[in-house]
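Researcher: If only I could read backbone structure tokens as easily as an amino acid sequence. Walk me, if you will, through where the backbone shape changes along the chain. I have put the entry right below:
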Amino acid sequence: MTFRNGSWRARLTVLGVFALGVALGALAMEFYQQSVRGRSSAGPPPRGESARERHLQYLVKELGLTQEQTERVRRILDETRQEFLQLRNEMRPRFEEIRRRSRERLRAVLTPEQQAKFDELMRRMDEERERHRRDEPKGK
């Protein structure tokens, strides 16, 4: 199977940028989750309100926290979570702008037919990202 030199490069570029975006997104999410839950080896990353409670209970058990300590730790974890949520919301516009510019540059190397397919792929990726965003726990 042969590809025109330019066609092959364009496809490879699109695939490379897509893979880089996925890898960076996964890395950013892992960093965020580790920051929220601490560097605990308590198992897979927790999710949502019940996950925060599980994390707290893990600390209570492993550290032998008193009731007063437990309440203070709960407040600290809640405050820290709010700070991370705020930071993520502040950073989101910068990520969106980088994503927008990248897509413009990618579209410029594609044929009109490829652009239509690319636009559809990006639409589906955006929908999936929005679905995940809606599923994320919200701040109090």
Confidence is low (pLDDT under 50) at residues 39-46. The two ends are 56 Å apart (CA to CA).
